[in-house]
């Protein structure tokens, strides 16, 4: 501080010295020429002109720098010019540099974030239109074929209408998922927290998915008999969505006659962990890190038998994170997968 202070006066002190020496020399020459030279007078003259020069220069320089700096501050709106006082100017050159550095850094981060978001947006739109295109063109194809004459063939008419209906249903699911993920990503999701029995909720989901599972002869079961309720505190509807998404995956990517097992364990004092384990196709290590990304699917080829938009796990992750809980995945390719998430226990 002390050093800074002196430094800021150095400029005025030096310049004033030069001016004072010059003026004294010139005046001395004049006085010498007119034979009226007095060393005392020269000395006093030097001192007075030095002092005056010093104060004028110091004052002017300070004003000048203050004006410029203030303008920079105003332009950058780094801080309110109001809390920037004139007296602070000399020492504040360093602060200004720091502020501008910080400003530049912040701006850079902001631009990076915007770029990432822009990429994200483009990718999202691309994915959405891609996902919608397939079922839409399917419907269009069937309708056109029917209009072309197939509608006169009664069995064909029914078959095509049914297929078109399937595709429309699929469109509906995608739109619903998109709606959900958009809400989740905008942070619009307000949790409806309540206390409920997670065992009972899992049983409900078992009932809902029984048909789907039986088509592949997959058994949905608990790992052991849970005799007493396990009460948790969370948004019941969302947790149900999580369970559905995970169990549907375990069926979709499960093997014929396989098993999906649910277990609920105490984790720490106030947490339980819910595990959904299957003995299906599993996920290769290299894909594991990406499966929670929206639209990400391991098998991207159209040849896959199981349709899906790749939003299921992204939605699951959002819901769990909205609860401030964690989701984990462990999987061995060809052996099976285990998805697990934590929930808060109700006291
Ligand atoms: N239990 C599982 N076993 C094997 N692979 C899985 C399992 N769960 C998810 N995956 C892989 O992770 C990918 C992403 O899953 P996600 O649920 O997000 O999308 P999806 O099931 O393809 O489509 P959607 O759920 O939107 O209908 C899946 O495509 C699949 O490859
Ligand atoms: Mg899924």
Give a description of the structure.
With 347 residues, this protein is α+β, with helices and mostly antiparallel strands. It contains 8 helices and 7 strands; from the N terminus they run ααααβαββαββααββ. Strands 1, 2, 3, 4, 5, 6 and 7 form a 7-stranded mixed beta sheet that branches. The two termini are 57 Å apart. Mean pLDDT is 87; it is low at 80-84. It binds adenosine-5'-triphosphate and magnesium ion.
Write the layout of secondary structure elements.
Blueprint: H1 2-33, H2 39-76, H3 92-147, H4 154-185, E1 193-197, H5 198-215, E2 219-222, E3 231-235, H6 236-252, E4 259-266, E5 271-278, H7 285-288, H8 312-322, E6 327-332, E7 336-345
Parallel strand pairs: 2-4
Antiparallel strand pairs: 1-3, 3-7, 4-5, 5-7, 6-7
Helix pairs in contact: 1-2, 3-4, 4-8, 5-6, 6-8
Q: Would you kindly provide a brief summary of this structure?
A:
The protein is an alpha+beta fold. 60% of the residues lie in helices and 13% in strands. Strands 1, 2, 3, 4, 5, 6 and 7 form a 7-stranded mixed β-sheet that branches.
Number of H- or I-type helical stretches: 8
Taking the sheet with the most strands, its summary is: 7 strands, mixed
Radius of gyration equals 38 Å
**What do we call the CATH homologous superfamily of the largest domain?**
Histidine kinase-like ATPase, C-terminal domain
What is the CATH architecture assignment of the largest domain? 2-Layer Sandwich
Q: From N to C, what is the helix and strand string? A: HHHHEHEEHEEHHEE
How confident overall, as mean pLDDT?
87
The percent range for helix content is 55-70%
Question: End-to-end span in angstroms?
Answer: 57 Å
CATH topology of the largest domain: Heat Shock Protein 90
Strand content: 5-15%
CATH class of the largest domain: Alpha Beta
What bound compounds does this protein have?
Answer: adenosine-5'-triphosphate, magnesium ion
Counted up, domains total: 3
Low confidence ranges: 80-84
